[in-house]
Amino acid sequence: MPTLPWTTPNEPQPGVTTALVMASRLEVRSLKDVPRFLFQSLAAWKQVRGAQGALGASLIADPLRRTFWTLSAWESRERLYAYAKAEPHHTIVKGLRSIMRRSVFTFWEVPVDQLPITWADAKRRIAEQQAAEARS
Q1: What is the pTM of this model?
Q2: Measuring CA to CA, which residue among 46, 47, 54 is closest to residue 12?
Q3: Cα dihedral 57→124→20→13 (10° resolution)
Q4: What confidence tens digit (pLDDT) does each residue in 29-75 have?
Q5: Angle at 67 between CA 32 and CA 133, to 5 degrees
């Protein structure tokens, strides 16, 4: 399972003591969609590495299961949303919607001195979020 390890693009700005963490599990509909998703995710990865307020990020690709995992930490929700609305991320998300099967997103806050987040913690939180969505 290919993993892009935790990268720290920026140190927290002075006074930032809490990070917003976002983790996701993204699944494409078909194996034929995997190369397209992988290619597009690398462009988004390059963007996050230069994004203001990005405190860390990691990706896992499980292509044979058509599943991709993202984990990132941000100075604020505003910084995360600015990244999501910026190019190329905005166009990538729009263009991939038709090939997506299921996506789960979860958010939480941690003290910045607890970064990086472990994948075990992120996957546990994603599973909890998925279970909560299934119940509702």
Answers
A1: 0.94
A2: 54
A3: -50
A4: 999 999 999 999 999 999 999 999 999 999 999 999 999 999 999 99
A5: 125
